[in-house]
Amino acid sequence: MVRTPCCDTSGLRKGTWTPEEDRKLIAYVTRYGCWNWRQLPKYAGLQRCGKSCRLRWLNYLRPNVKRGNYSMEEEETIIRLHEKLGNRWSAIAAQLPGRTDNEVKNHWHTNLKKHFKDKPSEAKYDSKKESAEVNKRGKSKEKEETKLNDHNLPLILESSPSYSPQEPASSDQSSSINKYNTVKSTKDSVTDDDNSNKASFQAYEVDSGSFWSEPFFWENSNMITSTTLDSSGYEFAEFPFLNGEMDFYDQLDGFYF
DNA sequence: AAAACGGTCAACCGCATAACC
DNA sequence: GGGTTATGCGGTTGACCGTTT
Fold it and tell me: Is residue A242 part of a domain?
């Protein structure tokens, strides 16, 4: 089987995401949903491969992604599930609302694994010690979180009253979304989190015909006030909630980041 | 003060598999 | 049924940052 490369290596950016890229991705996904990750960067004006966009969204930008210190309950859950499931991080993360598989995996490797390494035979987890270390770690992390929370991005949450996505649209389009919404995990971990995500994206299934031809310029948009050209020549929408006079991240208030 | 070291975590890569044609 | 495409997952990497020497 010939597999097409996930990235067209010519001209696509790699590495750390810039605030501007985040802004474009958030703006596009909150507006149109993630109907097709491979096509999305083109329409969102991003020089990234779809895979990279998906990862960035799921692990970092998505609403309700919980960041920062793990509670003891969460850590105990990870440990318990890891004993039971092994390295099935997505299944473990599914039991921890707001946590992503990547984050759980990182947390395991950096914080929890050592308890097993250090004390392979005794009670595998010293929660008091871990708690102390978490607190210690929290000091430095707190600073970073404060910074992140200060970003104040007014992400539009599905649950927020002002969130009224008008979705993409052609029949092709909505079929993609339907596919996303109805696809079943083969790895036995269809979770509340999965379902809530699916449910939230179902809200995008509003019929209309012009999405493919006008991917980012929704005529009846009540959110997009104007469009502008970025340096790469892509046109992208400007959102009222992304006030150009403020730092992008300064507008991120009240959202997990 | 600065170089070396170690920990953390965002992001990439390759593979597996579901979905589609 | 077989080829192709899209998505999801887990392993790994490397940049960044704090700590130690």
Answer: yes
Measured in degrees and rounded to the nearest 5, phi and psi for residue A193 equal: -65, -45
pLDDT tens profile A131-177: 334 333 333 333 333 333 333 333 333 333 333 333 333 333 333 33
B chain positions with any atom within 7 Å of a protein CB: 7-20
Quick check: is A13 in a domain? no
Judge if pTM exceeds 0.70: no
Say yes or no: Cβ of A136 under 7 A from any atom of strand B: no
Nucleotide nearest A2 (Cα, C1'): C4
Six-digit token string for A124: 């595998």
Question: What is the end-to-end Cα distance of chain A in Å, rounded?
Answer: 39
Identify whether A215 is part of a domain.
yes
Domain around A198 = 19-63+155-250
